Amino acid sequence: MRILMLVATTVATDTRVLREARTLVGAGHEVHIIGRSVPDTFQPDPGITVSSIGTSSVFRPEGGQSLAGRKLSPPMKLARWALLPQHRRSAFGRWADGALADSRGRQFDAVHAHDFTALEAGATLADERGVPLVYDSHELWTGLPREYRPTPLQDRRERRVEQRLGSRADAVITVGDGVAGALRDQYGWDHVTVVRNTFPLNPGKPDVPDEPTGFVYAGRVAAFRELEAIAAASHLVDLPVTIVGPADDTWLGTFDPGRATVLPALPLDEASRLMQANGISLVTHSDRWANHRLAQPNKLFHAVGLGLPVVATDTGELAKVVREHDLGALYPPGDAAGLAGAMRRVVHDFQRYACNVEAAREALSWDADAARLVAVYARLFSGAAGTRGEG
Q: CA 19 to CA 25: how far, in whole Å?
């Protein structure tokens, strides 16, 4: 069958979207993805095609320079903080309008809407064509951090829209048991299936060093990632610390990394080699927002797939998985000294934690999650769209 995916990201670095698309192609389907400002150089895997809608808003034309990363005067900072919600709403709205126009010239048998930003457009297309709608909630939308002025009216509207359209979706999938439980409690949904952000299991034993040579944080470099604690802890441990990933340049401009080295984003393979060369992965995030407490970050499953012990924040679903499989050491959120102590504990007991990670790799790999995703589509295309999801 032909599956139309809608996602307001560049696609090229969206590992969840690409992993799901590859899995569905492997199950015999065709997948077309409509993304947002997809790089011209991006080449998708066979069986996947991609088209792109540009990034613009009433405040900035396509290709216009962003204020992110620029040094702003206090009045400009205030204006940006105040106007950012309108800019985001306009930018995502224009993308959705473009995605609708692109989609109407295509043939598809199901619509897969990635995250709330694609949900309204996805529901419109599914209704127009009379095809199934899958809502893929990458996080708890109502629990996301807000780095702009409060928007209570907009928040209430988005909650009503998500409840209405998610309730009419033929299937809802999400990234973990915590988010699934929150969606069930918040909206009364009984058709949620968990498809985690795990990684494919490579054959053979991972290339893990006999002893660690450093710590690597590989992920988004921005607020609410506990990077301030990592920077402070870098002064308290002997081994070097590396921070690598796509950055919020505005936030990074005021960040003091301490003794840590900050690197720009790397292709997945290069980031993986960097992590394996160092031996220990830092899987950190804040517990300030509901979404942080419910999240099972990609970073965790990436580290496990590479066979690496972790140092993780003791919060919510993340800590639950680390404890269940004894994958490494935990520290209290915001506690740099506690983080440094956890880092030292993993160094001291590295081989034991590495053995635990190896034992957990299969259970925490993409094979099980891919099977759940394929099963969702099997139900939809077998005429059993009324069959509800499973955790």
A: 10
